[in-house]
């Protein structure tokens, strides 16, 4: 894990994003630690082998998946899809995941159970943003363009005018290994892109507005219908979603398994 010192930062942004990303407001955090990478397929398999845990998708009998060729914003409710086969058992041969890729098709409930088993927890939304930004103030840890200084893409997201076809400029169609791209300044990999990252907070559209005067160690609303996910994913593109960045706030039901949702744990 990466140790993150206590500190104060301006969370959110005032311009250029959705209304729920504003206003920028002062947040003070106690010291904590956070996983350097997203939890991998191998990590989650070890947890399941040790506990016999059945994921939300396995209990539901389906998961929500997407593949190249689908229309923007479309999702397929696929029977048999789970963290073991995010694109379904029929596609498992051609779309099998590698052990070093992030586990996906995991709900918030699954992520919470995994972290708890290890004596950890999910990061708060504020902890997540503080750690992923690593002192930066731009859309990505290295600047506002998805290309890094050398011209190469710095994250895994969808390239192409639509989801009909991906140009694969980043080298990947779907998920990528958790250390495929350089880390941020604090040594944290995949701060944006690859897989959405569940955080502990319930979603509140006005969370930032309510904290506008400044807050210490915030944890969001006390209840709600959706949990927050951050960072964007391989399915986010410039023309659809466009949420691959350090400020965008995703949300979904805590029992919902998607082929682009993963997580990392925190402690402290």
Task: Give a structural overview.
- There is one protein chain.
- By secondary structure, the protein is α+β, with helices and mostly antiparallel strands.
- The protein has one domain (1-268): paralog of FGE (formylglycine-generating enzyme), CATH 3.90.1580.
- It is built from five helices and twelve strands.
- The chain has helices at 41-51, 56-60, 108-117, 125-133, 207-210, and strands at 2-4, 7-11, 25-29, 32-34, 62-65, 76-79, 196-202, 215-216, 227-230, 249-252, 261-263, 266-267.
- Strands 10-9-7-11 form a four-stranded mixed β-sheet. Strands 1-4-12 form a three-stranded antiparallel β-sheet, with helices on one face.
- The longest helix has 11 residues, at 41-51.
- It is globular.
- The termini are close together.
Overall geometric form = globular
Name of the CATH class: Alpha Beta
Instruction: Write the H/E string, N to C.
Output: EEEEHHEEHHEHEEEEE
State which percent range the strand residues make up.
15-25%
Q: What's the CATH architecture name?
A: Alpha-Beta Complex
Average pLDDT rating: 94
Under CATH, the topology is which?
Answer: paralog of FGE (formylglycine-generating enzyme)
Radius of gyration: 17 Å
Low-confidence stretches: none
Number of helices: 5
Q: CATH superfamily, please?
A: paralog of FGE (formylglycine-generating enzyme)
Spatial ordering of strands, largest sheet: 10-9-7-11
What's the number of extended β-strand segments?
12
Q: Termini, distance in Å?
A: 11 Å
- The oligomeric state is single chain
């Amino acid at each position: 894990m990466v140790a993150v010192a206590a500190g104060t930062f301006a969370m959110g942004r005032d311009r250029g994003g959705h209304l729920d990303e504003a206003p920028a407001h002062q947040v003070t955090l106690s010291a904590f630690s956070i996983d350097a990478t997203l939890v991998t397929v191998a990590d989650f398999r070890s947890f399941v082998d040790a506990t016999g845990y059945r994921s939300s998708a396995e209990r539901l009998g389906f998961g929500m998946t997407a593949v190249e060729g689908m229309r923007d914003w479309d999702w397929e409710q696929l029977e048999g899809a789970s963290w073991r086969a995010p694109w379904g058992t029929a596609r498992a041969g051609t779309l099998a995941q590698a052990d070093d890729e992030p586990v996906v098709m995991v709900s918030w409930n699954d992520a919470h159970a995994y972290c708890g088993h290890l004596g950890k927890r999910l990061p708060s939304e504020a902890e997540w943003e503080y750690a992923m930004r690593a002192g930066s103030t731009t859309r990505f840890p290295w600047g506002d363009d998805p290309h890094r200084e050398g011209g190469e893409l710095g994250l895994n997201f969808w390239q192409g005018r639509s989801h009909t076809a991906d140009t694969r400029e980043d080298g990947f169609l779907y998920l990528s290994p958790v250390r495929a791209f350089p880390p941020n300044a604090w040594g944290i990999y995949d701060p944006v892109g690859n897989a959405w990252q569940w955080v502990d907070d319930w979603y509140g559209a006005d969370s930032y507005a309510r904290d506008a005067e400044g807050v210490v160690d915030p944890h969001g609303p006390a209840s709600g219908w959706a949990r927050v996910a951050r960072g964007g994913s391989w399915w986010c593109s410039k023309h659809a979603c466009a949420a691959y960045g350090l400020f965008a706030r995703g949300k979904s039901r805590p029992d919902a398994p998607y082929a682009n949702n993963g997580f990392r744990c925190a402690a402290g």
